[in-house]
Task: structure prediction
Amino acid sequence: MWRKSHQYITTLNIFENVDKPNPSDEELNAQRKWTRAYIVVLVVIMASVMYITMLSYQTVTTIVDKPTLDEYANLP
Result:
């Protein structure tokens, strides 16, 4: 399973040129490098967005009809 996964990852190419069915080894390696760079950037951006979202403050709205002075003083 490890070898199959490793082979899939090393041969993954999302920038394959459909107009050129048999690209040269140089072009194929470049496309694979761009694929890896794209995935790394995508993961970094998604992790950053998740991190920023976790840090954002959430506002809690509490509605109290006609609060007494004590209730007003104890509001968050």
Q: What stands out?
A: The helical segments are 2-11, 25-55, 69-73. The chain has one domain: 2-73. Residues 25-55 form the longest helix (31 residues).
